[in-house]
Structure formats: C-alpha cells, structure tokens
Amino acid sequence: ITSFDWSGLEDGPNLVNPMDFPNTVVNSAAGQAAIKFKLGGVNSTICAAQASGLYALDYATQFLRLGRARMLLAGGVEELSQEAFLGFRKNGLLSSSGAARPFQAARDGAVLGEGAALLVLESAESARERGAQPWAEIAGFGCAQDAHSTSAFQIQADGATAAIQMALDSAGIQAGQVACMVAAACGSRAGDAMEARAV
C-alpha cells in the first residue's frame, strides 16, 4: 500500500502500476491467505484500530450464530511499519523512555511491536461432530468508544463502561462472575486513566 501510494505521489497518478492496485485494498492479505490455503466462504477485514481483532471475533461469531458458516478463522494482525511508527510519533503517542508502563504513574506512551493472534471458531454442533473439545466460548460482546482524537479520551469513561456492560448483558452474567479481564493498557496517560475508571 505504501509503495503504491508513494509511487502516486512521486511519479503522479498516471504512472502508477495498475497491476499493484489489487494488493492495496485492505482485504488483500486475507484474500491472498484464503487463496493459498484454499479457504472458502466469508473473507473480510475489519479496521477498528486496536480493537480490530475483537471486532473480527464478534463478526465471525455472528456468522456462526446465524448459520452462515460452520467454522471460521478470526483474530488480529499488526505489522510494525515506518508509517505506523511515524504516525504514533507525530501524534505524541510513543513512549519517550521506550518502556511500556501501563497504569503506572510514570507511564509516558506506547511501545510499538507487531504480532498476530488468530482463533479457529466454530459452532457447538460442528465441534461435537468433530469430537473437538472447545477451549472457550464467546458468550458476549460490547462496543462503544470514548476517544475524541488519537490522544484524547472522555475521562468519565462512559463509552468504555457501556461496552463492558453490553458484554456482560449479552453474556448473561454479572460483574462479580468475571474471573479475568485483559486490559488494552497501552501506556497512554489519557487512555489508561479512562480505562482504569471504566474497570
């Protein structure tokens, strides 16, 4: 994508290679993986910043619940690119100390990295037929937001609190029944404060 964009900016839009364009759409990586591994059915990419992987899990879960698929691969992937690094740096979101210190008083921003986590999701019926022992069940999901910009949040955490309550309600459980919670905890002074308040 970056190479294609730079070519358009430096050489002009009339000189970009049209054969490169299909690889610039956001779903191209998922499409290439599906072709390589002969994966059929639903193929989609969700862009929701740091929450993209969670949204993808919910999206896949809905397809399974509606009977539109029996088994799907879903999760999140992030590549550390020069463009992402520059974007975080220009917006003042990077840790100046280079240390990730989520929720600590001395936290000063994010430390970037890259990784991927994908899960095989399937209906309970499909798992029974295969004799598979499920590791977990996705029982609930909630979404809302408190961001005003990349570095400013609504400190009252109304959105994050609402998302947590939606997830609890859709799972049919109470807050006291939660045994483990994984926080975003990126080390942002504003983001961590908002998240801590919601929790």
Describe the protein's architecture and organization.
The chain is mainly alpha-helical and 199 residues long. Helix content is 37%, strand content 8%. The chain is built from seven helices and two strands, in the order αααβαβααα. Strands 1-2 form a two-stranded antiparallel sheet. The longest helix is centred in the first third of the chain and has 14 residues, at 52-65. The mean pLDDT is 90.
- Overall pLDDT: 90
Share of helix among residues? 25-40%
Q: Let me know the number of strands.
A: 2
- CA gyration radius, whole angstroms: 20 Å
Largest sheet: 2 strands, antiparallel
Strand content: 5-15%
End-to-end distance? 37 Å
Number of helices: 7
Give, in order, the helices and strands: HHHEHEHHH
Helix and strand content put the structural class at: mainly alpha
- How does the overall form come out from the CA principal axes? flat
Low-confidence stretches: none
Physical arrangement of strands within the biggest beta sheet: 1-2
